[in-house]
Amino acid sequence: MAHSAQKGKLLAIIGDEDTVTGFLLGGIGEINKSRTSNFLVVTKDTSIGELEDAFRSYTSRDDIAIVLINQHVADMIRHVLDSYTQAIPAVLEIPSKDHPYDASKDSILRRARGMFSAEDLR
């Protein structure tokens, strides 16, 4: 934990090549001493199991504060996102170049709305 306090917390990203590349160019990429990265580029060959493993890995690390995931990728592992209930790391679904954001699919946003409106709990 001292390591995280000294260096700050990281963003993790799971997404298509364009999205991940953009964030890496912005400086979020890191590979730690055990050669574990904080990003996963999803291609047509990436399996659902790999996505689930990456998501679970990022959400269990104490050096990650936010996990960004392309919404179309999140749809592939929606059952895992729906069962995730921790506040930190926060999970944010983001659009990609080819897939616009759809608020109705965002499980975290639906849960947050449910906290404020009885209608959304139905």
TrEMBL record:
Keywords: Hydrogen ion transport, Ion transport, Transport. SUPFAM superfamilies: AtpF-like (SSF159468). GO terms for molecular function: proton-transporting ATPase activity, rotational mechanism. The keyword DNA repair does not apply. GO terms for cellular component: proton-transporting V-type ATPase, V1 domain. The keyword Transport applies. Belongs to the V-ATPase F subunit family. V-ATPase is a heteromultimeric enzyme made up of two complexes: the ATP-hydrolytic V1 complex and the proton translocation V0 complex. Subunit of the V1 complex of vacuolar(H+)-ATPase (V-ATPase), a multisubunit enzyme composed of a peripheral complex (V1) that hydrolyzes ATP and a membrane integral complex (V0) that translocates protons. V-ATPase is responsible for acidifying and maintaining the pH of intracellular compartments. This is V-type proton ATPase subunit F.
